[in-house]
Specification:
Blueprint: E1 6-10, H1 15-26, E2 30-37, H2 45-55, E3 60-65, H3 88-91, H4 103-118, E4 122-124, H5 140-153, H6 155-158, E5 165-167, H7 175-184, H8 209-221
Parallel strand pairs: 1-2, 1-4, 2-3, 4-5
Helix pairs in contact: 1-7, 7-8
């Protein structure tokens, strides 16, 4: 009997990445969860990530620290106000100020490094190209290009030992579809965090783009969000 394959799973503690980790576990992977403390204003998500990783039986959960506040230019890493109360049309007009420059490129690079050390060929990331806020690094073109680059960039790939695969199981799902799928795979929604601008106690603001998309997803799926009850 073959042993389970290893997978590095990027985990923010949000709904999408937590669902992605649950899917990897369902599909039989030994999951190595990877989170980042990068100076984000919603750092409470890291506590949620730790709880999600434990609840879903991750083999390891690591938090990598670096400070993207040194570069700024994002509402998540500087004093730029987080947009509130925007409509879906407003969210899709342009790339919002909550975009963190090169964030997913950086995250995937760390994941690739750990995967090579683990001799793992599989990396999971919970990006979504439908119900999203216009981030360029959430598109399939980006993840496909990164996968191609990954197989040119590592010793393991060049020597033919490992071919890296970037899994994006949520890429074409609506937020309602993600909520439904998460419920099917047993994700505990109470452990997740989606808000960009929580209060001092970590409670969601209910008005940022991420909160609004989450609320609409739960409503469309017909499932109550336990964070709002």
């Amino acid at each position: 009997m073959s042993s389970p394959r290893k997978a590095v799973c990027l985990l923010s503690g949000g709904l999408d990445s937590s669902t992605c980790l649950a899917l990897a576990r369902r599909d039989g992977f030994d999951c190595y969860a990877l989170s980042f403390d990068y100076g984000q204003r919603h750092r409470v998500e890291l506590d949620c990530a730790a709880q999600v990783a434990a609840s879903l039986g991750a083999v390891q959960h690591r938090i990598i620290s670096f400070d993207l506040r040194q570069f700024g230019r994002s509402a998540l890493t500087s004093d730029i106000p987080v947009p509130k109360g925007r409509s879906g049309a407003e969210m899709s007009q342009d790339i919002p100020v909550t975009y963190v420059p090169a964030r997913n490129t950086i995250f995937l690079s760390f994941a690739l490094a750990w995967a090579e050390i683990l001799e793992a060929s599989d990396i999971f990331i919970g990006v979504n190209a439908l119900d999203y806020s216009g981030y360029p690094d959430c598109r399939p073109e980006f993840t496909e290009s990164f996968e191609h680059m990954a197989n040119l960039a590592t010793k393991a790939a060049v020597e033919g030992h490992i071919r890296t695969v970037i899994h994006t199981p949520l890429i074409r799902l609506s937020k309602a579809g993600i909520v439904t799928l998460a419920a099917e795979v047993g994700l505990d929604f109470r452990l997740t965090h989606s808000c960009y601008d929580p209060d001092a106690a970590g409670r969601p603001c209910g008005a940022c783009d991420s909160c609004i998309l989450r609320q609409k997803g739960f409503e469309a799926a017909g499932i109550p969000d336990p964070l709002l009850t």
